[in-house]
Amino acid sequence: MSAITNHMPTAELQALDAAHHMHPFTTNDALETRGARVITRAEGVYLTDSEGNSILDGMAGLWCMNIGYGRKEMAEVAARQMMELPYYNTFFMTTHVPAIALSQEIAKLTPGDLNHVFFASSGSEANDTNIRMVRTYWAEKGHPGKSHIISRKNAYHGSSVGSGSLGGMSFMHAQGGLPIPGIHHINQPDWWGEGGEMSPQDFGIARARELENKILELGEDKVAAFIAEPVQGAGGVIVPPDSYWPEIQRICDAYDILLIADEVICGFGRTGTWFGSETMGVRPHIMTIAKGLSSGYQPIGGSVVCDEVAEVIGATEFNHGYTYSGHPVAAAVAMENLRILQEEKIVDRVGSIGAPALKAGLEQLVDHPLVGGLSIKGMMASLPLTPHKESRAKFAAEPGTVGYICRERCFANNLVMRHVGDRMIVSPPLVIEPEDIDVLVARARRALDETYTELKRQDLL
Ligand code: PMP
């Protein structure tokens, strides 16, 4: 066995990493020339890298570290569960206590009659389940032709063939023959980027009506479901105008199509209530969950399904399942995460303290010459960068060039912020304290100032 440890020189770790480790969404060239940042430890909202830097994690990992790093209870629960029952499956009429307990707890927390959970290990897997589930539902009800699914451009629903097809990212569709047949994408409700001269409210209605038009174009008897994130995350934290979701709900009700809310980011407190569907006032038939379900301490996700759909699906055998569906260690750790979220009132605290503090902090950045506005819901936010605030203009450079420069300046200032195109994204652990939000804002301002200088230097402004 090789003895690769945190104590090795960073350059050596980077070279080995570039030689053998294939990274998601990364080029070999970047790995070889610059080397990946090696993260060695984390505590609370701070990461430590192999050079000893203390980095504020303004992204909660990949939007998942809701309770913050370093909670010992989570490790203890995992160790206990591994000693008692490290693995067993839930196929062929077997079950175990962690899966029973977690599904009951999720059913209690989710709204309405979302009372049934089909487990997966990730959001991608759960969305693949959803594709097969909604098509099977309508087939079992005698409507096999009701199989088309409508999603949105620039949505993110995962990276597997099915979930990547549901997603609306053209650069992902360009690789590997996506989307699969029967998936359609309407425009997103991105008023800042695409609203032009329309008022946000009119724009929200117009974009929602695209769903109605698509249903009419395909035929009501052909459409199984509409899927959307309550607030688009990876697409750039796009908070829809208030008029959008009520109109979407009306259309789903009117045409008898299933509504799937992808709560992988919004779920478990991110928007200030337990689920983004509650914040946005929608009633889904199915919710996709992952990330905040375990705060990233274990890989686990699932589809939370309403009574009627679960009954129809369960009436025959649903020929679908994953080796790790309801994995006992992942389920026990998720259960402990839900205990911490509830007993420490972390979701309530987002509404009363975290979200208002984050909003107040980020609003201070809106006067920066590069910042075109603030899009925020709970503790997910984006700051679109622009050369001209009033007209919400785009930069002349290739989209993403400026965002990338800013992301690198954030990193250099020991702050993780992500860029989606030229929008800067913030989504910190839900437990971040107001004084750490001050640190985040101060570092972001420095990064923005340095970006401004760099843009001038490169003649990009
Ligand atoms: N849906 C949404 C809304 C997501 O943000 C993500 C991941 N960023 C996924 C699905 C896919 O989840 P996973 O990466 O766990 O497969």
Helical run tally:
17
- Alpha-carbon distance between the termini? 52 Å
Tell me, rounded to a whole number, the average pLDDT.
Answer: 97
Oligomer: single chain
The distinct bound ligands, ions and cofactors come out as: 4'-deoxy-4'-aminopyridoxal-5'-phosphate
CATH class of the largest domain: Alpha Beta
CATH superfamily of the largest domain: Type I PLP-dependent aspartate aminotransferase-like (Major domain)
DSSP E strands, number: 15
pLDDT below 50 for ≥5 consecutive residues: which ranges?
A: none
Overall tally of structural domains = 2
Alpha carbon gyration radius: 22 Å
Envelope shape: globular
Strand content: 5-15%
**Structural class label:** alpha/beta
From the 3D coordinates, which CATH architecture of the largest domain would you assign? 3-Layer(aba) Sandwich
Strand order of the largest sheet: 4-10-9-8-7-5-6
Protein name: Aspartate aminotransferase family protein
GO molecular function, one term: transaminase activity
Cofactor: pyridoxal 5'-phosphate
Organism: Roseobacter sinensis
Q: What's a concise summary of this model?
A:
The chain has 461 residues and is an alpha/beta fold. The chain has helices spanning 10-20, 28-33, 60-63, 72-84, 97-109, 123-140, 161-166, 170-173, 191-194, 200-218, 244-254, 276-280, 307-315, 328-343, 346-363, 401-412, 434-457; strands spanning 39-43, 46-49, 54-57, 114-120, 148-152, 183-186, 223-228, 258-262, 286-289, 301-306, 375-377, 380-384, 415-416, 418-420, 423-426.
